[in-house]
Amino acid sequence: MVLLLVIFLIMPLLSLIYARGDLFDVVLIDLRLPLEYVPVVFIFPFILRGESSMKYLRAFVPLILLALLFLGVEMFSGRRTGMDYGGIYIRYGSIFGSPNDFGVFMMLATTALLAFLAERAIKWSHKAIALLVLMLGAVASTVSLSAMFSMIFTSIALILFSRNRVKGALTVLAGVVLVAGLYFAFPQVGVSRFIGERLGNLATLHEGSASEHYTSVVIAEDEISRFEPAEYLLGTFQSRKDLILPETYYLRTFFVRGAISLLVILSIIGMTVFEGFRRYRAAVGDRQRRALFLAAFLGVAGFSFASMFISYFESFPSNFYFWFLVAIIWCEPMSEKELYAIHSVRPKQQIVGGQAQTLAPGIGH
Known about the structure:
The protein has 365 residues and is an all-alpha fold. It has 17 helices and 2 strands. The chain has a two-stranded antiparallel sheet. A hairpin with a 2-residue loop joins strand 1 and strand 2. Helix 7 packs antiparallel against helix 8 (126-142), helix 7 (99-118) packs antiparallel against helix 15 (287-306) and helix 9 crosses helix 15.
């Protein structure tokens, strides 16, 4: 994994040699945007120092509450930070400003909450249900199709890959019931109608964003068809200032940084999801740690799925959340039981401080 990360960091440096145009544009598009938070994975072990990462994951709970609070202020004050098209056509961005970044953040947060509920690391309670309702409503308020499709994707994955599929299915079913209840309780709310219109126009590409995405993909494919042999491996030699970049991150990576970089990032995603699932299965007897790894690998998978529609890997703060989840999966110290379950050998050390901490002690009580 370390070798893949090093290759992923080094490959864009070659563009400084062959890419035409302004050096600033090359550094911004090829280096800074895709790479600025990859070092989190290398730094994280020194931050943990043998302790569990649960306390750092728990630090996101106040951020979630702050984002939900600001969303309420945004809705009722009439001061939009998202996108206001007039009338019912409003997409809320909360403290993120961008509805898509806010949407993918709430998707990751909701997925984590569902994972902890499915593993009974957080008990079902009126507080947990209220928080889940607010978070699902926040995802809907963004009217971000990429976040919504990813929410569906991670929910299905939760059912398929959770240790107890019945509990996973019941947890997802509870979420579906809450979503349906919100929709039928407020069918005339602007967000509900706006989402309905976007989904209805999606198939015919009458939906503006989908049409723009499709056009950018066609342009990129046309440019790729005229590549020189070396460009297939390293990416386009054109000036970055003149490029019309597709929103699909994986096509963008192939277009700008070539097949080698695309294969490396796909390998990083695949190996991380596999390792996260393996550690989830090995976390025996500790609900908090099972939920931690379930939430982490589902989050990585959901983020990667969302990036088929929007280049979240190059958008702050969304890209930070991805590499943070990758760091949890690869850098979280193993307990004695986990080492034995994975390697079938008795370890010499275990986690400093014993079992992982509780994610949100007050939610499940």
